[in-house]
Specification:
The complex is a heterodimer.
Chain A (H helix, E strand, L loop, with lengths): L3 E4 L2 E4 L5 E7 L5 E7 L5 E9 L2 E4 L6 E3 L9 E3 L8 E8 L11 E2 L3 E5 L1
Parallel strand pairs in A: 2-11
Antiparallel strand pairs in A: 1-3, 3-8, 4-5, 4-9, 5-6, 7-8, 9-10, 9-11
Chain B lengths: L3 E2 L4 E5 L4 E7 L6 E7 L6 E7 L4 E4 L2 E6 L4 E6 L8 E8 L9 E2 L3 E6 L1
Parallel strand pairs in B: 2-11
Antiparallel strand pairs in B: 1-3, 3-8, 4-5, 4-9, 6-7, 7-8, 9-10, 9-11
Classes of the chains: A mainly beta, B mainly beta.
Chain lengths: 116, 114
Protein backbone atom coordinates (compact mmCIF):
# COMPACT_ATOMS: atom_id res chain seq x y z
CA UNK A 1 0.00 0.00 0.00
CA UNK A 2 1.11 3.55 -0.71
CA UNK A 3 2.69 5.82 1.83
CA UNK A 4 5.69 7.67 3.05
CA UNK A 5 8.28 6.06 5.29
CA UNK A 6 11.03 7.44 7.45
CA UNK A 7 13.76 5.49 9.09
CA UNK A 8 14.87 5.03 11.72
CA UNK A 9 12.21 6.12 14.20
CA UNK A 10 14.82 6.96 16.85
CA UNK A 11 18.40 7.99 16.14
CA UNK A 12 21.21 8.83 18.50
CA UNK A 13 24.43 10.49 17.44
CA UNK A 14 27.43 12.02 19.08
CA UNK A 15 27.96 15.74 18.78
CA UNK A 16 30.04 16.66 15.75
CA UNK A 17 28.90 13.74 13.60
CA UNK A 18 26.90 14.10 10.44
CA UNK A 19 23.77 11.98 10.24
CA UNK A 20 21.41 11.20 7.35
CA UNK A 21 17.69 10.68 7.80
CA UNK A 22 15.88 8.59 5.23
CA UNK A 23 12.57 9.49 3.56
CA UNK A 24 10.91 7.36 0.88
CA UNK A 25 7.50 7.68 -0.75
CA UNK A 26 5.65 5.47 -3.21
CA UNK A 27 2.78 7.88 -3.82
CA UNK A 28 4.27 9.10 -7.11
CA UNK A 29 4.35 12.62 -5.67
CA UNK A 30 6.55 15.23 -7.27
CA UNK A 31 7.06 17.41 -4.21
CA UNK A 32 8.78 16.45 -0.98
CA UNK A 33 9.54 18.38 2.21
CA UNK A 34 11.50 18.22 5.42
CA UNK A 35 10.26 19.82 8.61
CA UNK A 36 11.60 20.10 12.10
CA UNK A 37 9.39 20.17 15.18
CA UNK A 38 10.58 21.27 18.59
CA UNK A 39 8.51 20.91 21.78
CA UNK A 40 5.60 23.36 21.89
CA UNK A 41 6.33 24.64 18.42
CA UNK A 42 4.90 24.16 14.98
CA UNK A 43 6.49 22.67 11.91
CA UNK A 44 9.39 24.63 10.51
CA UNK A 45 10.38 23.99 6.89
CA UNK A 46 14.00 22.96 6.36
CA UNK A 47 14.13 22.11 2.64
CA UNK A 48 11.68 21.25 -0.08
CA UNK A 49 11.88 19.80 -3.56
CA UNK A 50 9.36 20.28 -6.36
CA UNK A 51 11.02 17.93 -8.79
CA UNK A 52 13.90 15.50 -9.12
CA UNK A 53 17.36 17.09 -9.03
CA UNK A 54 15.98 20.36 -7.72
CA UNK A 55 15.43 21.63 -4.18
CA UNK A 56 15.11 24.91 -2.32
CA UNK A 57 15.95 26.11 1.14
CA UNK A 58 13.14 26.54 3.59
CA UNK A 59 13.07 28.79 6.63
CA UNK A 60 15.77 27.01 8.67
CA UNK A 61 18.13 25.37 6.16
CA UNK A 62 21.40 26.28 7.88
CA UNK A 63 23.29 23.19 9.01
CA UNK A 64 21.26 20.84 6.81
CA UNK A 65 21.68 19.41 3.33
CA UNK A 66 19.46 17.36 1.02
CA UNK A 67 19.52 15.54 -2.28
CA UNK A 68 16.79 14.51 -4.69
CA UNK A 69 18.31 12.06 -7.11
CA UNK A 70 15.17 9.95 -7.33
CA UNK A 71 11.52 10.91 -7.25
CA UNK A 72 10.85 8.50 -4.41
CA UNK A 73 13.66 9.55 -2.11
CA UNK A 74 14.57 12.78 -0.31
CA UNK A 75 17.26 12.14 2.34
CA UNK A 76 18.18 14.84 4.84
CA UNK A 77 21.68 15.19 6.27
CA UNK A 78 22.06 16.93 9.58
CA UNK A 79 25.59 18.26 9.58
CA UNK A 80 27.87 19.14 12.46
CA UNK A 81 27.21 22.79 11.60
CA UNK A 82 23.64 22.51 12.91
CA UNK A 83 23.91 24.06 16.36
CA UNK A 84 20.90 22.41 17.96
CA UNK A 85 20.09 19.24 16.01
CA UNK A 86 18.08 17.38 18.65
CA UNK A 87 14.49 17.47 17.40
CA UNK A 88 11.65 15.52 15.77
CA UNK A 89 12.10 15.48 12.00
CA UNK A 90 9.15 15.03 9.66
CA UNK A 91 9.21 14.29 5.95
CA UNK A 92 6.20 14.97 3.75
CA UNK A 93 5.16 14.77 0.13
CA UNK A 94 2.46 16.29 -2.04
CA UNK A 95 1.28 15.93 -5.61
CA UNK A 96 2.90 19.24 -6.41
CA UNK A 97 1.33 20.03 -9.75
CA UNK A 98 1.10 23.72 -8.99
CA UNK A 99 -2.58 23.90 -8.10
CA UNK A 100 -3.45 24.96 -4.58
CA UNK A 101 -5.83 22.04 -4.27
CA UNK A 102 -2.87 19.71 -4.42
CA UNK A 103 -1.17 21.35 -1.45
CA UNK A 104 -2.26 18.60 0.89
CA UNK A 105 0.82 17.06 2.36
CA UNK A 106 1.19 13.47 3.46
CA UNK A 107 3.57 13.00 6.34
CA UNK A 108 5.82 10.19 7.39
CA UNK A 109 5.90 8.93 10.99
CA UNK A 110 8.93 11.06 11.84
CA UNK A 111 12.43 10.46 13.16
CA UNK A 112 13.43 11.61 16.61
CA UNK A 113 17.09 12.60 16.53
CA UNK A 114 18.99 12.96 19.78
CA UNK A 115 22.51 14.30 19.72
CA UNK A 116 24.48 13.36 22.79
CA UNK B 1 7.17 37.41 11.82
CA UNK B 2 4.79 34.51 12.26
CA UNK B 3 2.34 34.50 9.38
CA UNK B 4 0.03 31.84 10.79
CA UNK B 5 -0.90 32.03 14.45
CA UNK B 6 -2.82 29.70 16.69
CA UNK B 7 -3.13 31.76 19.83
CA UNK B 8 -4.54 29.06 22.06
CA UNK B 9 -1.88 26.46 22.90
CA UNK B 10 -4.48 24.20 24.46
CA UNK B 11 -8.21 23.58 24.65
CA UNK B 12 -10.19 21.23 26.85
CA UNK B 13 -13.80 20.26 26.17
CA UNK B 14 -16.28 17.70 27.40
CA UNK B 15 -17.21 14.75 25.23
CA UNK B 16 -20.25 15.53 23.09
CA UNK B 17 -19.69 19.28 23.17
CA UNK B 18 -18.36 21.47 20.39
CA UNK B 19 -14.63 22.13 20.01
CA UNK B 20 -13.64 25.36 18.28
CA UNK B 21 -10.04 25.83 17.26
CA UNK B 22 -8.94 29.18 15.91
CA UNK B 23 -6.28 30.33 13.50
CA UNK B 24 -5.26 33.80 12.32
CA UNK B 25 -3.05 34.71 9.39
CA UNK B 26 -1.37 37.89 8.26
CA UNK B 27 -0.41 37.23 4.64
CA UNK B 28 -3.27 38.38 2.40
CA UNK B 29 -1.85 36.27 -0.43
CA UNK B 30 -2.78 33.04 1.33
CA UNK B 31 -5.66 31.44 -0.55
CA UNK B 32 -5.72 27.84 0.60
CA UNK B 33 -6.00 26.66 4.17
CA UNK B 34 -5.62 23.25 5.73
CA UNK B 35 -6.04 21.63 9.11
CA UNK B 36 -3.90 18.71 10.20
CA UNK B 37 -4.24 16.47 13.21
CA UNK B 38 -1.23 15.03 14.99
CA UNK B 39 -0.90 12.36 17.65
CA UNK B 40 2.28 12.19 19.77
CA UNK B 41 5.32 10.68 18.05
CA UNK B 42 3.45 10.45 14.72
CA UNK B 43 3.33 12.54 11.58
CA UNK B 44 0.40 14.92 11.05
CA UNK B 45 -2.53 13.71 8.98
CA UNK B 46 -4.69 15.88 6.76
CA UNK B 47 -8.10 16.66 8.19
CA UNK B 48 -9.91 19.26 6.11
CA UNK B 49 -9.16 22.18 3.83
CA UNK B 50 -10.82 25.27 2.42
CA UNK B 51 -10.16 27.47 -0.57
CA UNK B 52 -10.44 31.23 -0.29
CA UNK B 53 -13.37 31.23 -2.70
CA UNK B 54 -15.45 29.55 0.00
CA UNK B 55 -16.35 30.55 3.52
CA UNK B 56 -17.30 27.12 4.80
CA UNK B 57 -16.36 23.53 4.19
CA UNK B 58 -17.90 20.59 5.98
CA UNK B 59 -16.82 16.97 6.31
CA UNK B 60 -18.76 14.90 8.78
CA UNK B 61 -18.16 16.20 12.30
CA UNK B 62 -15.58 18.70 11.06
CA UNK B 63 -16.37 22.13 9.64
CA UNK B 64 -13.91 24.84 8.73
CA UNK B 65 -15.02 28.46 8.50
CA UNK B 66 -13.04 31.16 6.73
CA UNK B 67 -13.42 34.89 7.30
CA UNK B 68 -11.16 36.54 4.74
CA UNK B 69 -11.80 40.09 5.86
CA UNK B 70 -10.68 39.19 9.38
CA UNK B 71 -7.95 36.84 8.13
CA UNK B 72 -9.32 34.23 10.46
CA UNK B 73 -10.34 30.62 10.18
CA UNK B 74 -11.76 28.19 12.65
CA UNK B 75 -12.24 24.47 12.91
CA UNK B 76 -15.41 23.20 14.56
CA UNK B 77 -15.68 19.65 15.78
CA UNK B 78 -19.11 18.54 16.84
CA UNK B 79 -19.75 16.38 18.71
CA UNK B 80 -16.27 16.08 20.17
CA UNK B 81 -15.03 12.59 20.98
CA UNK B 82 -12.14 11.43 23.19
CA UNK B 83 -10.37 10.13 20.06
CA UNK B 84 -10.23 13.71 18.81
CA UNK B 85 -7.66 14.49 21.49
CA UNK B 86 -4.57 15.50 19.54
CA UNK B 87 -2.59 18.51 18.38
CA UNK B 88 -4.27 20.42 15.56
CA UNK B 89 -2.19 22.46 13.15
CA UNK B 90 -3.52 25.15 10.90
CA UNK B 91 -1.61 25.68 7.62
CA UNK B 92 -1.88 28.20 4.81
CA UNK B 93 -0.46 28.47 1.32
CA UNK B 94 -0.53 30.93 -1.57
CA UNK B 95 -1.07 29.94 -5.19
CA UNK B 96 1.74 32.21 -6.33
CA UNK B 97 4.31 30.22 -4.33
CA UNK B 98 5.37 26.70 -5.05
CA UNK B 99 2.46 24.36 -4.51
CA UNK B 100 2.49 22.63 -1.16
CA UNK B 101 4.81 25.07 0.53
CA UNK B 102 2.49 25.65 3.43
CA UNK B 103 3.14 27.78 6.46
CA UNK B 104 2.12 26.11 9.71
CA UNK B 105 0.89 27.51 12.99
CA UNK B 106 2.30 26.29 16.30
CA UNK B 107 -0.65 24.01 16.96
CA UNK B 108 -3.42 23.71 19.55
CA UNK B 109 -3.57 20.70 21.83
CA UNK B 110 -7.17 19.55 22.15
CA UNK B 111 -8.21 17.36 25.06
CA UNK B 112 -11.67 15.85 24.98
CA UNK B 113 -12.72 14.58 28.39
CA UNK B 114 -15.06 11.57 28.65
Amino acid sequence: DGGITQSPKYLFRKEGQNVTLSCEQNLNHDAMYWYRQDPGQGLRLIYYSQIVNDFQKGDIAEGYSVSREKKESFPLTVTSAQKNPTAFYLCASSIGTGAASTDTQYFGPGTRLTVL
Amino acid sequence: DQQVKQNSPSLSVQEGRISILNCDYTNSMFDYFLWYKKYPAEGPTFLISISSIKDKNEDGRFTVFLNKSAKHLSLHIVPSQPGDSAVYFCAASAAYTNAGKSTFGDGTTLTVKP
